Amino acid sequence: MTELLSQLWTPELQAAFTVVVVLLVILYVLSIVWVVRDAYLRGSYWYVWAVVALIPLLGVIAYCLLRPPLLQIDRDEQELEIALKQRELMKYGECANCGYPVEADFVLCPNCHQRLKNLCGTCNHALDPTWTVCPYCATPVAGAAPRARRGARTPQPHQAAPQQTRQARPAPSERGGVQ
Ligand SMILES: [Zn+2]
Ligand SMILES: [Zn+2]
């Protein structure tokens, strides 16, 4: 029996055996390193998991089953994404007239056609009715919403003025006609 074993236990087999053992040891050490690093990245108690990982094979399997599902970076990213979505939502408002959701640069309410914004006469950007100057091209806003309506009426005196002058001109000729 021992003769048979010593015959089988050739130097080649010994070498192969040590290679396998060395590989297993490397794998074991690497598994511990991986568990510690992964647990650290996932923001869990990595030192606890380091102790668990010392149990060969079972430690790694236990960690794979119980580790937190998200990396810390992913979690931060998710929070950032939520914050971004909230900011995006803040860009939307409601039509003061009908409550329909409208975007910040909408000029009209698409639902009830209520005027929401003024357009800059120079660059055609949507302007808040309270602004007195266009922030895109620095053109003074002649018509913020209330002023725009007044502005539409104010040209009437200008139009009336030439009519007066026209009326004024025929007046002397009329006088001339009388004289
Ligand atoms: Zn509306
Ligand atoms: Zn402008």
Automatic annotation (TrEMBL):
<feature type="domain" description="DZANK-type">
    <location>
        <begin position="95"/>
        <end position="137"/>
    </location>
</feature>
<dbReference type="Pfam" id="PF12773">
    <property type="entry name" value="DZR"/>
</dbReference>
<feature type="transmembrane region" description="Helical">
    <location>
        <begin position="46"/>
        <end position="66"/>
    </location>
</feature>
<keyword id="KW-1133">Transmembrane helix</keyword>
<dbReference type="InterPro" id="IPR025874">
    <property type="entry name" value="DZR"/>
</dbReference>
<feature type="transmembrane region" description="Helical">
    <location>
        <begin position="12"/>
        <end position="34"/>
    </location>
</feature>
<feature type="compositionally biased region" description="Low complexity">
    <location>
        <begin position="153"/>
        <end position="171"/>
    </location>
</feature>
<keyword id="KW-0472">Membrane</keyword>
<protein>
    <submittedName>
        <fullName>Zinc ribbon domain-containing protein</fullName>
    </submittedName>
</protein>
<feature type="region of interest" description="Disordered">
    <location>
        <begin position="147"/>
        <end position="179"/>
    </location>
</feature>
<keyword id="KW-0812">Transmembrane</keyword>
